Amino acid sequence: MTVLEDVCGWELENIPLMQRLLRPVTRLATLVDSTNLSAWQRRWAFKSVQDEVNQLWEEYGHSGKTQKLMWMNAQTGQTEFRDPFTALTYAYFAACWALLDIASPSESNTETISLPLRSCSPSTPPQAGSEPQRRPNSQSPPVKTPPSVRFISPSSSSPTWSSSSPVAEHHALILSVAWYLRLRDVGFSYLRLHSPLFVTAMYSASIEQRRVARMIFEEWESGSLKGIGALALERLDAEPA
Asked: What ranges does the record list as Low complexity composition bias (predicted)?
């Protein structure tokens, strides 16, 4: 993003929101991996990136509050999105919330904000949990039925969680985005999905969610996305068990 700002001379507000989300994701990933920061430095860095994410989320809420961006398909039980770019935007916000939870200093009592499910019919509430996952092959997608998630609107004056496991829901949303894009074979999306999906594969507390995310990278590696799939798997395998 700094290239667009510094070299191309773009104003920050003119850069697409999904591109602007790359910076907090990168800052949070760096903060999570940092081991040489003092408590004060960690708190300051966390508050700074948290404010940035909150500002972007507020902006996203204002720009799309009259549109139906995400909903649950009552027939299939799958999460649907307005379009692939909307799906990727949700994935990046979900990755930010998940990383904020990990990076949060122990002294911080920060309230985490959930993602919205706008225009969702109350007669078709999302179902909790997921069906057993299967290893993908060339004929079957990596996720049989993605975990369903429940979210609220960012315009709520006092956002609260709709589940006892909010962080797991953010990882579930990332997997739902992967499923949505997989079914549509949106070629441009895979490189963009790499970072949020890696957050789930690396940091989710759920063994099943990490397994499914890794399974997607393995499918990429065995197909035309060998390079980015292999990079993710190499990093995952380098981490201590």
From this structure: 146-165
| Residue 175 contacts residue 203 (beta carbons within 8 Å) | no
For residue 72, give the 3-state DSSP assignment: strand
Buried (b) or exposed (e) across 196-229, using 16+ Cβ within 10 A? bbbbbbbbbebeebbebbbbbbbbbbeeebeebb
**pLDDT, tens digit only, all 241 positions of the chain:** 444 444 445 666 678 888 899 999 999 999 999 989 999 999 999 999 999 999 999 888 876 677 888 888 899 888 899 999 999 999 999 999 999 999 988 754 444 455 544 444 333 433 444 443 433 343 333 434 444 444 433 333 323 322 234 899 999 999 999 999 998 887 778 889 999 999 999 999 999 999 999 999 999 999 888 899 999 999 999 977 5
Contact 114, 139 (CB under 8 A): no
Q: How far apart are the first and last CA of the chain?
A: 33
Bridge partners (DSSP) listed for residue 14: none
Nearest to 94 by CA among 78, 117, 74: 117
Q: Is the dihedral of CA 195, 211, 81, 91 positive or negative?
A: negative
